[in-house]
Amino acid sequence: MSSSSLSVQGLAKRYGDFVALAPTDLVVADGEFLTLLGPSGSGKTTLLSLLAGLVPPDEGSVRIGSQDVTYAPPYERDIGVVFQNYALFPHMTIEENIAFPLKMRKVPAAEAKRRAGEALEMVHLPHIAGRYPRELSGGQQQRVALARCMVYKPSIILMDEPLGALDKKLREHMQLEIKRLHRELGTTVVYVTHDQEEAMTMSNRICLMNAGRIEQLGTPADLYFRPRSLFVADFLGESNILPAALRSRSGDEVEIGLGTLGVSGRALANGNELPPGTEVRVMVRPQNLTVARKGGNTPDELQGRVSEVMVTGSLTKVYMEPLDGKLPPLVAAFPTRNDDDAVRIDDVLTLSWSGRDAVVIADKIADAARAAGTA
Amino acid sequence: MSGQTVTMTHAPDAKRHSPPPAWRKPVLMGAPLVLLLVGFLVFPVGQLLALSVYNGQGFTLAPYAQLFASSLYVTVLWITLKISLATTLVAVVAAYPIAYLISIAKGPAKSRLIFWVLLSFWTSFLVRAFAWVVILGRNGVVNSTLMSLGIIDRPLDLLYGFGAVLAGMVHAMLPLAVMTMLAVMENIDRTLPRAAGTLGARPGTAFWTVYFPLSLPGVAASAIMVFVSAIGFFIVPALLGGRKETMITQLIIDQVQQTLNWGLAGAISVLLLTVVLVVFVLYDRVFGFASLTGESAVVRNRDTAMRRLGGRVLGMLGSASDTAIGLLPRRHPIRGRAEHPLALTGFVWLLLALISLPAFLMIPLSFGKGGLAWPPSGFTLQWYQQLLDSPIWMQALWRSIVVAFGTGLLAMAIGVPAAFLMVRSQMRGKGAMLAFILSPIVVPRMIIAVGMFYVFAQMGLVGTILGLVIGHTVVAVPYVVMTMMAVLRNYDTRLDMAAQSLGARPLAALRHVTFPILGAGMLSSFLFAFATSFDELTISLFSSGGLSATLPKQFWDEVTLQVSPVVAAVSTGLLLFVATLIYVADRLRRRSLAG
């Protein structure tokens, strides 16, 4: 247990009948960058507030290091919180803001001033010490909030959508900045965001939350390529979800059949132990679908008619209606090239993928069937 | 370890806090206010009402028999309602353009407008009512001006009539009407009329069909505040009205001070309270109480015939005003679409001059040799000298300052935690709690004052500073709660959380973060309480006892018994005091925004 700086057991929070967080277990390793990802209302901010001690839980426990801090107030937890709107004190200068946690810890004024200066150097803003928060740009305020949090070297830093208010370019820059500071300081970071790209870029592990529960916990690659549920597949980037039937299994790969035309393909079993004949879903990411013009109406190949072509910059996305009407629309993506043989609307393309790039999703079949039954 | 860890199963933990009991904080924050109001509002008013059916031996309805035996009381009630309604109508109509102009003005222009409204608002009711005596009296401003111009050759009887009372009442209530309305107007989205413009509505139509309907909750809130204040008012009718303008509160004073008929006083109070409660229930049915605190009321009315008719009328008003605007010569082609039309600005400043001037008339009179007759002649400081030499006035001033200070502190100590509770907690019954907190404003002041007098007499609090402080705190605390609630709604609670996460204990967070940021707001609610007490007459009229008068009580005695020009000197002093207070408060507010 000594390697875990933060652990949560059976932690739950309700507001009246609304379950903000169902009983949840979570262990964050020392020095880890863990992201709580999820749509709004998924419980990620509730979990963060419980970790910070801003709201008391209904049940369960929170431990930091070897201490039980379940009901300890925030000021006894040795945590740092970076708030969504930065929560810089408007009546204090930047230097006073950064020195505030040191003052609360009875650090002598001169020492506090020196360390506040160092913290400002660390975020590359040594020249703004005497200004007030409202005189700074959003990006500068963000960095000051980081500096204020890091100046007292808390063992854990919690960040609640810290980049939400910044524009795209600045956000990407700050992502790198936060990564750098995390590397340099070696602090444990729990980071909340609803932006899946941000989560993928920054995290050691992602904890994807939905409806007050942890949907899946794992590395970005785990969640992206090996989602355990349709929700996870859908939340992390674009995906193609195809209804399929298991035909046979060899090692960790399975043979599947798609639609009514007898198209077949391969996919990773993803740990699902299912008998042949089971109805499942198969997920393939758009960039892992290979499109080709080679024609012919071979029944065992998946073909689609192009309905829309979008050049998003580095990627070109092609939306298609499969000729087999039982299958949902598909999207393929490939690097944009400067060539004359561009794909046009109404072209018919053949689609294929490697068995390592497709993955079986089994768990939601039962849920979907139940939902269909009750609907 | 200690007892609280006994039930915990995680024995090895060095430290485990138990969850704090959820009820403790709200009770601690709300209890003082509830106790104050129960002890010094509900109990005294209940006592007074009980006196109307209990005569010491048993149940009786004699006071009610007396009440309805002669037509006097019903007639007076009718007069009271008539004056109050007329006052409400005129005050609300006049307040609308002022509040509208303030809500669309920006920067220094806005501050100037607000300053003049506030100056009237805080200038003592007594000073303003007395100013009308000087304006309308036989040797007053109007008569002497008309005579010197040769328009009339003997003074008109302007004073002691319905017109004089209406002028005084409107003057007294207009600032309140503006402030209440403004609270709602400030929250109307400025872009909506503009959006209407881009959708093809001309300015008049945009105003009448978009802005005006949105401002109606403010108009309603302002109307009820004015009506309820007017119905319990006695200063203006007593100073400016004749026998035909006697209002019901004056009858209560007579019963208590002259005939000592507590039963009848109680019965009249029941009558008055019933009228007020009926008005409030009707108001709540139509608009909801939420609109009183400046929150937008939930739109409840659907597509009814009334609503369709209202829409048609507003549409017609819109096209009518557009036609009128079209007839006006266009100013600069580009500046033609200025947002504050000159005509409106001019009209509003005229109104503001009208409500400010009466009090200012006291300044030249206070330096004049001729007493209170207009025009003032010569220059003398003798009235100020008399004032400073008078131990009665000086003691009254000192007592007023002490009482106002005590009231400010006590109202803050009780009201601020309650405001935190109302804004921050998710407790149930907040609506009922708010209604209870606001009840000292709803219940006519006269009833509170008489009930309090009865209870204070039994407790030996009549004539004491403590009694006055308690009494004034009861009526000042709703204002403290309301202003603090408005301030707290704009306060980002994450700053407190941030402070705590950075290591500040709750008290340190309050001291270093919450209070410094809220400082200006807290000071202004303190000043609100201070000024409420400093100008309070009704409670002081009874509870200050015969000998320990406050400044308003002394002023009242002076103008009702023997009028001396010293009153003009006092008025000038009060005016200066209020102007300084508003100026300082405004500077503090701005500095807090800047810092």
UniProtKB/TrEMBL annotation, chain A:
Pfam families assigned to the protein according to its UniProt record, in alphabetical order: ABC_tran, TOBE_2
Reactions catalysed: ATP + H2O + polyamine-[polyamine-binding protein]Side 1 = ADP + phosphate + polyamineSide 2 + [polyamine-binding protein]Side 1
Classification via PROSITE patterns: ABC_TRANSPORTER_1, ABC_TRANSPORTER_2
The protein's Enzyme Commission number: 7.6.2.11
Keywords, alphabetical: ATP-binding, Cell membrane, Membrane, Nucleotide-binding, Translocase, Transport
Keyword Translocase on entry: yes
GO biological process: putrescine transport
Example GO molecular function: ATP binding
Enzyme class: translocase
Record-linked Gene3D superfamilies: 2.40.50.100, P-loop containing nucleotide triphosphate hydrolases
GO cellular component, one term: ATP-binding cassette (ABC) transporter complex
Keyword Nuclease: no
ABC transporter domain location: 6-236
Family: Belongs to the ABC transporter superfamily. Spermidine/putrescine importer (TC 3.A.1.11.1) family.
Subunit architecture: The complex is composed of two ATP-binding proteins (PotA), two transmembrane proteins (PotB and PotC) and a solute-binding protein (PotD).
Role: Part of the ABC transporter complex PotABCD involved in spermidine/putrescine import. Responsible for energy coupling to the transport system.
NCBIfam families, sorted: potA
Name of protein: Spermidine/putrescine import ATP-binding protein PotA
Organism: Azospirillum lipoferum
Automatic annotation (TrEMBL), chain B:
InterPro entries in the record: MetI-like (IPR000515), MetI-like_sf (IPR035906)
UniProt feature coiled coil, ranges: none
Family: Belongs to the binding-protein-dependent transport system permease family. CysTW subfamily.
Annotated Pfam families: BPD_transp_1 (PF00528)
Stretches that traverse the bilayer: 33-54, 61-79, 85-102, 114-138, 158-184, 220-241, 262-283, 309-329, 341-367, 397-421, 433-456, 462-488, 509-531, 566-585
Example of a GO biological process term: transmembrane transport
Subcellular location: Cell membrane
Keyword terms, alphabetized: Cell membrane, Membrane, Transmembrane, Transmembrane helix, Transport
UniProt protein name: ABC transporter permease subunit
